[in-house]
Each structure stands twice: as structure tokens, then as C-alpha cells.
């Protein structure tokens, strides 16, 4: 369990250093089993991912019951709904990365690159805006992730998943790079 929490802290700092999150925005989580109980390690509310320490990480069970002190991210239900629907997901990253989030505020979609994730659509899937932290957002995201590994949350940010927290992080970083490349390409066409 200690290694899982250290990995979560390391990924938090990496996301902050790469400017995929800023201030106190964004949240990440990791699922693991301890004595046959599913435990979710999640970032707390109102703490910058850049300043996160191991003792700040909040542990909850799969039903959201607190196992440690601290207040989990306001998006805890979003994370829990995904884990309940996707047994293959053990890491979730939610960023507000500038280029991909910029696309989320526009009517433009981010094109998928060939060989990227589960390709069923040539563009990354958008989830319509729902209030952050709301049950409506948690339900719509879990539903949309049935056949996807990453989503663009309209007027909000990016949500990526993986078999572990590092994989989810790399996917979030890749999405930001795709968005940046597409933005630059579009600007050069003007």
C-alpha cells in the first residue's frame, strides 16, 4: 500500500511540474486491494498536487466511506463510479491542462492519432458539461467510459484512465500533446 501512495504522490508532482494541473485544480486516484477490500487512494480537496505529501492522501473504500482522516477530492464520486464500472481501471487522472481544456471550451474536437487507445471514433469523446463534483457528472462520465480510456469534459478538462496511475498519467500527458499539436497545426494554416 505504501508504494501505491508514493506512486500517487509522484504522479501528482509530475502532473504539476508538467503544467497539466495548476493551483489546487485536478485530482487523481489509484485503486488497490488490501485484505480483499478495495481501497481507493485519492488526492484531497484544496491541496495543490504540486505540494502533495503521502500523509495528505485520503483513503476511502469503494462505497466512499473514509478510511483515513482528510477530505477527499470533490470528484470522489466520479472516481468511484468509474472503478465500479471498469474493473480493468486502477488509475484515474483528471487534469485541467491548458490546450486540451481550451478545446473543451470550443466547438473543436481533438483528433485521435492512429494507434492511440481504443479507436472507435476519430475524435476524442466529449462529455457534455455537468457541474464539477456533481452526481450527474459522475454518472455521465462512467457511462461514456464504457468504451473509452480518455474523455474531454466540456468546459472542464480531461479525464484519463489506465491499468495503473502511471498509465493514466501518460495518457493525460499524451492528450495534452495531441491538443497542442493540433492547435499549432491549425494556427499555421491561417
UniProtKB/TrEMBL annotation:
Listed under GO biological process in this entry are: pentose catabolic process
Respond yes or no to whether keyword Metal-binding is given for this record.
Answer: yes
**EC assignment:** 4.1.2.17
- Per its UniProt record, what Pfam families does this chain match? Aldolase_II
Answer whether the UniProt record assigns the keyword Secreted to this protein.
no
Q: Where is the Class II aldolase/adducin N-terminal domain?
A: 6-183
What GO cellular component term, any one, is given?
cytosol
Q: Which UniProt keywords apply?
A: Lyase, Metal-binding
Q: Which GO terms describe its molecular function?
A: L-fuculose-phosphate aldolase activity; metal ion binding
PANTHER family in alphabetical order: 3-OXO-TETRONATE 4-PHOSPHATE DECARBOXYLASE-RELATED (PTHR22789:SF0), FUCULOSE PHOSPHATE ALDOLASE (PTHR22789)
Which named protein is this?
L-fuculose phosphate aldolase
Origin organism is: Methanobrevibacter cuticularis
Q: Which gene encodes it?
A: fucA
Amino acid at each position: 500500500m505504501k508504494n501505491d501512495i508514493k506512486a500517487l504522490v509522484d504522479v501528482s508532482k509530475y502532473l504539476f511540474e508538467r503544467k497539466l494541473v495548476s493551483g489546487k485544480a485536478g485530482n487523481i486516484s489509484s485503486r488497490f486491494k488490501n485484505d480483499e477490500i478495495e481501497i481507493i487512494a485519492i488526492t484531497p480537496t484544496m491541496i495543490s498536487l504540486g505540494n502533495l505529501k503521502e500523509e495528505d492522501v485520503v483513503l476511502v473504500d469503494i462505497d466512499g466511506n473514509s478510511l483515513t482522516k482528510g477530505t477527499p477530492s470533490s470528484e470522489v464520486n466520479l472516481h468511484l463510479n468509474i472503478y465500479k464500472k471498469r474493473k480493468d481501471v486502477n488509475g484515474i487522472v483528471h487534469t485541467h491542462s491548458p490546450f486540451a481544456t481550451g478545446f473543451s471550451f470550443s466547438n473543436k474536437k481533438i483528433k485521435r492519432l492512429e494507434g492511440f487507445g481504443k479507436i472507435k471514433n476519430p475524435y476524442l469523446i466529449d462529455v457534455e458539461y455537468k457541474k464539477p463534483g456533481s452526481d450527474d457528472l459522475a454518472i455521465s462520465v462512467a457511462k461514456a467510459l464504457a468504451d473509452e480510456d480518455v474523455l474531454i469534459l466540456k468546459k472542464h478538462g480531461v479525464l484519463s484512465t489506465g491499468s495503473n496511475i502511471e498509465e493514466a498519467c501518460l495518457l493525460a500527458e499524451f492528450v495534452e500533446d495531441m491538443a497542442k499539436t493540433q492547435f499549432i497545426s491549425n494556427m499555421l494554416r491561417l
